[in-house]
Specification:
Distance between the termini: 21 Å
Order of helices and strands: EHHEHHEHEEEHHEEH
Structural class: alpha/beta
Number of helices: 8
Largest sheet: 6 strands, mixed
Helix content: 25-40%
Shape: globular
Number of domains: 2
Radius of gyration: 20 Å
Number of strands: 8
Length: about 280
């Protein structure tokens, strides 16, 4: 069975091969979660729920949206599991951050009738080649048809960093999703990639030509070939290490990872679960 790749799996290999090995090859459980990722999950859940209500012609008030968010935050927050790296911030700061993201989005798009929702947390799984050797999947935050008739592939970001135009025009994740949606809507259906930077209250868009998508397809297959041919997985230190859930066992920081189970090679590439996200 071929391994099904995702944007997160590909990016993990590019950022740090050691982390890739820990997560995807050795399948070491993540016993903690960064608070930024935790907030992102809660905000995504609330926006999905919001658009579900909108689809039933029931637009909740902002007060109700925030009450639901705070309830979900409180229910899932575990101080022993959630990691706060930036010591100058506390739980209350991150609770407020998510609330601010939701408030900005709500006020900007209320009453949410500007476009037609076609899918929420839409799962896409597709082949990059005819034989099905190169498989990719992911979950799209929201797919909609904009007022100008163009299909939009939308993504929510809760971080405060907003990439440059050049970076967005070469961004892989949503472009891969466009490749996946071409099988449903056809290769000639115009599409737009949309990022909502919720903490900044900003929206960025980008488009891809057919030639750019073909190039992405070839580059992604080449990256998969590289991953599957790799036998050594060295750590690559960066500022991201402070947020890595495997830092405590990483040899680059004096840690000692658990040994592979008997009969499991450290370089084996097992098929990924269909639950793997973006």
């Amino acid at each position: 069975m071929s391994t099904v790749y995702s944007h997160s799996r590909l990016s993990s290999f590019e950022q740090c091969k050691q982390k890739f090995q820990f997560r995807y090859l050795l399948e070491i459980p993540e016993e903690s979660e960064g608070v930024e990722a935790f907030v992102g999950k809660r905000v995504h859940e609330i926006l999905e729920r919001l658009y579900q209500f909108v689809g039933r012609d029931q637009v909740p008030s902002l007060r109700r949206v925030l009450e639901r968010y705070e309830a979900e935050f409180d229910e899932h927050y575990d101080a022993d599991r959630i990691r706060i790296v930036r010591s100058e911030f506390d739980r209350a700061h991150y609770l407020a951050l998510g609330a601010d993201c939701l408030s900005r989005f709500y006020r900007r798009y209320y009453p949410f009738d500007q476009d037609e929702t076609l899918g929420l947390e839409r799962h896409v799984r597709f082949n990059l080649d005819q034989e099905g050797r190169y498989q990719v999947q992911g979950y799209i935050d929201r797919v909609c048809r904009a007022p100008d008739g163009i299909i939009e592939i939308q993504d929510y970001k809760t971080g405060k960093w907003v990439p440059s135009r050049k970076q967005l025009d070469s961004e892989r994740q949503l472009a891969l999703y466009q490749l996946g949606l071409r099988g449903e809507f056809g290769p000639d259906e115009p599409m737009r990639l949309v990022w909502h930077y919720l903490a900044r209250g900003q929206t960025r868009t980008s488009t891809r030509t057919a030639a750019q998508l073909d190039q992405l397809q070839q580059e992604t297959m080449a990256l998969i070939d590289q991953i599957e041919a790799t036998e050594e997985f060295p750590a690559q230190k960066s500022n991201l290490c402070n947020w890595c859930e495997y830092k405590g066992i990483c040899p680059a920081f004096g840690g000692e990872p658990p040994r592979p189970q008997e009969g499991t090679a450290a370089g084996t590439h097992p098929p990924v679960s269909t639950a793997e996200g973006s």
